[in-house]
Protein 1
Amino acid sequence: MAQGEKVIVCDKLTKRFGDFIATNEITFEVNKGEIFGFLGANGAGKTTAMRMLCGLSTPSSGKASIAGFDVYTQTEQIKRNIGYMSQKFSLYENLTVKENIEFFGGIYGLTDQQIETKTEELLNRLGLKSEAKKLVGSLPLGWKQKLSFSVAILHEPKIVFLDEPTGGVDPVTRRQFWDLIYEAAERGITIFVTTHYMDEAEYCNRISIMVDGRIEVLDSPTNLKRSFGVSSMDEVFYQLARSAKRGD
């Protein structure tokens, strides 16, 4: 894919559960290598939308393509071209650091030689060489987080979906985690991230904020703060939440 190409395209994507509309005609595009923040209060429809984009849930209506593949008919191709990490991580705590890397390398279809090379590179980059034979369960939360993200992009996916990836860790570790995100984006990996930390929203190239299943605003952090006449994303979020309660 060429730089600047759209790797996520959504057009009126909708998910209904009976009479309840969880995700209501969301329309947006995400560029290759972009860090795209997908924000909203609990129950706004973020998780439902992400499940559709990852090929885990079939939309009720609308269109979407992920890395060039259709969310209705090409879900297996989508899964092969994305990475995923949640707040709960995806590592096996009863396996060692090295075993986890090797296991997921196999799941992602890498060859034995690729797994060996990438394992060595990853251990060196994260400074975990001396911890390679330690059980993941014994690592501090921040190290688990960095390792989980690095494993999620081990196969160099076109897009990585991060669902509240920094929950429960201290601010310094969160900032270090974002350094890893920037490095991945510079390599052309698109970052699609949900977070409830508004300071992290400032790190994104663009942000969408969902309210009651709809995308209420979508722009860069700088432009959003300017249009709302405020100095922080916290204040943008607060104003949107207040408007929603009033029914504006």
Protein 2
Amino acid sequence: MFIDADRDFMSKKMKIVVESIESKLNEPFFFEFKNIATAAVSKYIEAIKKLEVSGTRQDLTCFKDNQAEESINAHFFEITDKIVNSEVLQVLDALRYSFVCYAYNGLHQLYTRQENECWHPKIILTEVLEPNDIDSLPQVFTLYRGCDISELEELSFGQAWTTSLDIAKKFAYTNYLGQDWFDESSRIVLETRYPREHVLFSNQSIEYEVVVDVDKLDVVRTHT
């Protein structure tokens, strides 16, 4: 679906699981827009590459979009001008948002600002994300995750955990209350102990997030 160069850029630089995009674009409701989406992604990547080679220093305190952000947003509005299908628009906008985030401040912005309420390209960190406050964590500490019970049943865990039990409970039972897929009876809070040496990212403010290498998880249990 995507050319090799675009696949490599998304998987290696943006840490996107490309299959998560391809599976969405292959859904029946999106079939007639698949070529539009893949062409848009190529345009977005081209704009980001141009910004990178230009040597332009990004001012993160400026409210003005950089040239890549402007190009991505302009192309998005061009291709969606006559699309009325809200489900299709949501997918296209999620793609636009992901690439704008990356254009703004690279992988850090893309990962930390990803949407969780609706579909979003899946991102899996494979290396330490900077900046972080990993050094503030104890050598071994307790983590919690609010999620669907299927993660425990299938032993397929997400990367984002928290050192705050209250935050985990919000993610389990409160944050997604308005979503169609939400089923309180299947929501749980998980608990585990984890070593600092394998942490990929930490931000101990607001949501007290810790990103783990799921292959390094030891015993995961339901919090009681």
